[in-house]
Amino acid sequence: MVHQHLTLDPAIRNWCLFPLMVVMILASVLRHYVPMLFQSDKPADADDQKLRQTLGRAQRLRMNGRFLHGDAYRARRTYFISEEKEPSKDTEKGLGDGMKGALKNPPAADPTAAISDPSKMMGPLINNAGFVVTNMFMGAFSSYFMAGFVMVKVPFPLTSRFKVMLQRGVEISTLDPSYVSSVSWYMLVMFGMRNLIMLALGESGSAQDEQRAMQAQMGMGAPQPMFDAKKAFGEESTILGISLHAWAGDSVEQRLLGGRYPVPSLLDMPMDGSTKGGKKKGKRVE
Amino acid sequence: MAQAGMSSAAGEGDDKGFLNAQNLMHNMKIITACRTSLCAVAGIATGILGCTGSMGLILYLITYATVSLALLAKMGFDRSDYTAAKKDSGIAGFLLEGLFGLSITFILFWTLAYALVYVY
Q1: Residue ranges per structural domain of chain B
Q2: pLDDT tens digits for A106-122?
Q3: Which end of chain A is more exposed for a tag (fewer CB within 10 A), N or C?
Q4: Is the pLDDT of residue B52 over 70?
Q5: What is the DSSP code (8-state) at residue B83?
Q6: How far apart are CA A244 and CA A246, in angstroms?
Q7: Are A156 and A280 found together in one domain?
Q8: H-helix or E-strand spanning residue A152
Q9: Which residue segment(s) compose the domain that A74 sits in?
C-alpha cells in the first residue's frame, strides 16, 4: 500500500465528526434517563410487604434478642418457629406449641404473580426496545446524513479486507483502508463511549440505588424483584432455631457497679447493721 | 482524585475474610474510574504525539500497567484487603485486568486526537 496523506475538509469535522459524537453521547444519556420515566412508583403489594416485615421482625429478634428476658425471648421465638405437631395441653388453642410458627408457614410461591403483573414484565422489554430503537435510529441517522464522507484516519494500519466494511459508501479503490467512513466512526464512538458514559452517569445511578435501598429498609420502597418468601423464611427459621439466647441483663449489676459490686460476705454486714438500727429504733419508741 | 476515597473492604477479622460489600463495590468503582479516565487521557496524549501503529499499542500497555501499578501501590501491594481477590494472588493479574474492555476507549480517543491534529 502506497503511503498517502490526505488532508480532510474541516467542514467534515465540524458537520460530521463532532455532531455524530455529540449525538451519540446525548443518545446514551437519553437511554439512561428515559427508562427512569417509565419506572412505576406504585405502592408495594400488601401481602408481599407483610411477608417481608415478618422476616424483618424475626431478624430483629435474632439480632437484638439479648435485651429480652429468657421467657419473653422464648415466647417470641415460639411465635416464629414453633412446629404444628405436639400441641401442649395446658394452653388455650392457638397459643401453645400447637400453633404453626409465622416463619414455618410461607405462602406458596405464585408463579403467575410475576407474569400477571404487567409492569414487571414490561420493564426489561421497554429497556430493550429503547436500546434497539435508539441504535437503529442512530445507525440510520449516520448513514443517511453522513454517507460517503471520509471521516477519520485510524492511526494504525488496516489491511484492505476492511475496506468493504469500514469504507462503505466511499468507493475509491486506491484509498488507504485507514481512512474510514462514518459507519466505523459510529461504531467506535458507540463502544468506546460506553465506558465513559458509565463513569459519568454511574454516580447518579448508584446514588439512586442507595436511596431505593434506604426506602426499602423503611418499608415503603418498591420491592426487589426477586423475593422468594419460602426460601428466606426457611433460612431465617433455621438460623433462629440454632441461635443461642443469652440475656443481657443477667449480670447487669456487676457490670454497672464494676469494682464496687459487693462480694457476698460484705453484702451481709450492712443488712445486719440496718436490722440492728431498726431494733434500736423500736426500743426507743417503746 | 478518587483514590483517596479507597477504603478497606476487609473488616475486623482479616483472616476470616469478612468483606464489607459496600466498600468492595466502592473500590471496584474507583479502580474502574481511574482506569477509564486514564485510558481516555492516554489516548488523547498518544494521538497528539502522533504515534501510529504498534507504537500507540505499546504506549497503551505501558499506561495501563502504570495505572494498575499505582493503584496497587495505593493498596500496599496487597489487593486482597481491597478487592475480592484471594490472599496471595499475584500482581500480574491485576496489571492487565480489563485491558481489552478499555482498549476501545483508548482507540476512540487516540483516533480522535490523531485525526484532529494530523488529518484535518
Answers
A1: 21-119
A2: 665 555 555 555 555 56
A3: C
A4: yes
A5: S
A6: 7
A7: no
A8: strand A150-153
A9: 1-250
